[in-house]
Design brief:
- By secondary structure, this protein is an all-alpha fold.
- Helices cover 59% and strands 0% of the residues.
- The chain folds into 2 domains: 84 residues, no CATH class; 31 residues.
- It is elongated, with a radius of gyration of 21 Å.
- The relative contact order is 0.08.
- The mean pLDDT is 80.
Amino acid sequence: MSHAYLINNYFNPNSVYTEEDFRRRFRMRRHVFERLLRDVQQVKPYFRQKLDRASRLGFSLHQKVTVALRMMVTPQLILWMKPMVHKEEYLREPNQEDLNRLLRKAENHGFPSMIGSLDCMH
């Protein structure tokens, strides 16, 4: 969903959809969504619109928040996650055997001692 589509259909004063349509689509009132936009933008830099490597604008704040909200309420996502949440092997801390296996695997791929940084970026 493009930024222009979102703004024209849901956020402009003369938007295509009514407040009731907005509430049905987003499961909250427009003023609550707008407050969420402001708060999220201040707290999480990820949600700010940025330029990509080709100097093109990336996804807008409205798009990112909309996608995040849609993912949180999507039944398919919940169905996909349920088996993992109920299995102890996905929720437990790694033991020494797990750490040794992960270190060996990382070293084989040229990333020694990567366990110190879970995102492997530092």
